[in-house]
Amino acid sequence: MQRTMPHYAHSLPDEPNRDLWEPLGDHEQTVARLSASFLKRIDAGLAPWGDLLGRWHDIGKYSDDFQNYLASAGSSDVHHSEISGKVDHSTAGAQLAYGKSSPLGKLIAYTLAGHHAGLPDWDVATGQSGLKQRLDKKIPCWRKEVTKELEAMELPKSIPVRSPQACETFCKHRIASFRVAFLTRVMFSALVDADFLATESFMAPEQSIIRPNVSANIADLSKAIDKHLERLRADAKPSPVNKIRNEVSKACVDAAELNPGLFSLNVPTGGGKTLASLQFALRHAAHHGLDGVVVGIPFTSIIEQNAKVYRGVFNSLGEGVVLEHHSNTDPEQETTQSRLQSENWDAPLVVTTNNQLFESLFACRTSRCRKLHRIARRVIILDEVQSLPVDLLTPTLLAIRELVESFGCTVVLCTATQPALEWQDDFAIGLHKIRNIIPTSEKLHERLRRTTVQPIGSLCDEELVARIDAENQVLCIVNTRPHASKLFSELRESNANFHLSTRMCAAHRLHVLDGQIRPRLEQGSPCRVISTQLIEAGVDVDFPVVFRDVCGIDSLTQAAGRCNREGRAAQGNVYFFQGERRPPPGTLRMSADHGLEIARHFDDLLSPEANEAYFRLHYWQQKDRWDFRQVMDAIGRDPNSMEFQFRQIADRYRFIEEEAETLYVPWKKGEQLIRSLSESDYPPDRKLRRRLQRYSINLRRHEMAQLHAAGAVLSFHGYATLTQPHLYDKKTGLTLLKADGIVPPSDLMC
Fold first, then answer.
1. How far apart are CA 8 and CA 62, in angstroms?
2. Which end of the chain has fewer beta carbons closer than 10 Å to its terminal beta carbon, N or C?
3. Contact yes or no for 588/570 (Cβ under 8 A)
4. 742: helix, coil or strand?
5. What is the pLDDT of residue 649?
6. pTM, whole model, 2 decimals?
7. Using CA atoms, how far apart are residues 543 and 538, in angstroms rounded to an integer?
């Protein structure tokens, strides 16, 4: 006989009165309603899946073991109990789903089993964490407490996954497997976001109440950017460049009503594609009833610049319209609301890195997956799309394709070069049906040409330094931080010399760019900059002369975009040279070798023909590298078996293979922040962590080990800090060559 004792989902801290606890049935219904609504947005056929996931996700909490634990714990949320292993309440739903007479039960089982600890691998050789192992795991009895109606719910009969077409140029089953795995991850996202929000509304109602409720809709954002661009046009002086920018804007407006799908916007640097692409995206989203826009950018240096522009455009629409989500977000711009929005991207306009965006699409952890269902039905702008890593090309292009074909997205491939990702006879994984927003982009490239690239062969450092010293305003971009530092040190002593690299913390780089380099360029004052490639991707500077060490043609094009950007001179000069050192092995060397190969056969290295030839070498003829990290192997080839290794997929799909270690440096305000960290008895709160991030540098493990060996690092609450200020140069940032264990007296006095 079934008992009718009450069952609870959550207790309250120090609250013995169970009448105030959350009934389990109420929590299930709230999660079911939310997850069904999230998935219905994507496809009406997914709503029943969301309802079922919500109703079954906590079915294991009906066990006496869990209810007794909840009573004895007497405090806070027990979401942590799943991870800590105290009570397993998520395996029950997985076993129930798998036991139903439907092959789709396994898909549901992944999602339910992982709704706290993350999507599991199908099979784990050691331990019990694999779904295969958990389906056979003995768990606390829950069935005697569950209503027959809840246990008897049937799985939906089908899932709305589009079947691969007969014309596919590579394995249909592999594509189908990818689609089923991708859909599983999206359904998982809807469940965990619904679960977090429902739990928060009960456990932390004061936080739930302040979650942003943005009143501005996409049409409001579209009108705001139209007005902004009208003001810019009214204030701009007539020039050939501004005329072209107006034409680009008009082409984006004209294309906005075209059907959703894949678009390319190929505009040379300086053509205004940052605002024009957003104008297209907002108009397109408003016209087709899409939910918002995501802007993916390759480097944080560009995000800081672009997000500042976006905030200026939409400031009048109130807080919460623009969400800037990346590691170097300025803490002074962060609010409680933006922090909550960053958890699940509940904002009309999200500005993030390609790294954050794409790694989330292949993630397995709840924290990274929460946002996925909100990426559906949006316009996604991929800026500098040619920078996508070759070693992850197959899964990345399949993800773009899935977003468009199965999840209602429009994707805009933005680049200053010719399309690199379109299907070709020898590029079978390429994207089909890409529509050019500007059909005559080749003519546009010619009209916007403001530079001449001159290959000048090999230059030793002495010759290079002499040529840099001879210029009034010049930018030199090299491939490695040590080379940049060496060249800078060999320049003739002058307060007009500047250095930029990731050995400088973000606050330091921004100080040099905004406070010194840009004012000098505007005033025509002497300004000589030695930089790594961080400056060439969207950093808005304008030099009359640029030297670029050997690199890929895509990087050369970006470097040229820092030269005569505003067309002040009749022609800018870009010198393409081979330095004393070859680039380091890996992507940089491969790109440079391909660039040199193209330079042997083309006089005009910025021409569309040279770009096409380069990408034929760099992307299209690298078939053995398209899935070098073996992400597709972890997905599998048989969609019916659904033996997905979700954790392996997440581990393998990383833009940066080696995990960086973070060092906090005492540059200006960083010194005070580190002191606050060291003097506190408690770990830093979120505000201090975010402020510290602006004064951090990412190091490889062996570099951090070198600093530890020199006694130059102290850890406070797990945060590694630089304790020898002489190792952080006010011009070049961190200098590892000086980390020899010898500490000058000035450091001891700090």
1. 8
2. N
3. no
4. coil
5. 97
6. 0.86
7. 14
Q: How many CB atoms lie within 10 A of CB 511?
A: 15
94: Cα separation from own chain's centroid? 31
- Run of H or E residues at 447: helix 441-447
| Separation CA 58–CA 27 (nearest Å) | 9
HSE-CB of 661 using CA atoms within 13 angstroms: 18
Query: Do 605 and 455 form a contact (C-beta atoms < 8 A)?
Result: yes
Which CATH number is associated with domain 8-209? 1.10.3210
Structure letter (DSSP) for residue 739: -
- The span from the CA of 140 to the CA of 154, in Å, is 23
Q: How far is CA 277 from the centre of its chain?
A: 18
Q: What is the helix (H) or strand (E) element at residue 233, kind and residue range? A: helix 218-235
Dist CA 588 CA 727 (whole Å): 27
CA distance 667 to 730: 8
Q: Which residue has the tokens 């050995």?
A: 503
- Distance of alpha carbon 83 from alpha carbon 129, whole angstroms: 11
> CATH for 450-605?
3.40.50.300
Domain with CATH 3.40.50.300 in the chain: 218-428, 450-605
Residue 606: phi, psi to the nearest 5?
A: -100, 5
The rounded Cα 238 to chain-centroid distance in angstroms is: 37
Cβ-based neighbours of 662, under 8 Å, separated by 6 or more: 696, 697, 698, 699, 719, 720
Query: What are the residue ranges in the chain where pLDDT is below 50?
Result: 1-3, 75-84, 164-170, 328-332, 748-750
Residues of the chain with CATH 1.10.3210: 8-209
d(CA 691, CA 674): 10
List, in sequence order, the alpha helices (H) in 265-392: 273-288, 300-314, 336-344, 354-361, 366-369, 372-375
Residue 333: CB atoms within 10 Å:
14
User: How many whole angstroms from its chain centre is CA 499?
Assistant: 27
Structural tokens at position 21: 């606890």
Burial 166-201 (b: 16+ CB within 10 A, else e): eeeeeeeebbbbbbbbbbbbbbbbbbbbbbbbbbbb
Name the 3-class secondary structure at 556: helix
Distance CA(660)–CA(739), nearest Å, equals 19
pLDDT of the residue at 440: 63
φ, ψ of residue 426 to 5 degrees: the values are -105, 20
pLDDT tens readout for residues 234-262: 888 887 778 888 889 999 999 999 999 99
Backbone angles phi, psi at 680, to 5 degrees: -85, 145
Six token digits for residue 551:
């690199």
Rg (CA), the chain: 28
Strands 378-382 and 410-415: parallel
Q: Is the dihedral of CA 587, 590, 593, 599 positive or negative?
A: negative
d(CA 80, CA 83): 5
Helix (H) or strand (E) holding 378: strand 378-382
Residue 517, CB half-sphere, CA atoms under 13 Å: how many? 25
Q: How far apart are CA 467 and CA 229, in angstroms?
A: 40
Residue 348 class from Cβ within 10 Å (0-12 exposed, 13-18 middle, 19+ buried)?
buried
Region 218-428: CATH code: 3.40.50.300
pLDDT of residue 441: 56
Tokens of 1: 């006989």
Residue 452 neighbours by CB distance under 10 Å: 16
| Whole-number Å distance between alpha carbons of 502 and 507 | 11
Closest CA to 546 of 505, 611, 609, 605: 605
Distances 7 to 24, 196, 661, 711 between C-alpha atoms, Å: 6, 19, 45, 56
Contact call for residues 657 and 714 (beta carbons, < 8 A): no
CB 98 within 8 A of CB 109: yes
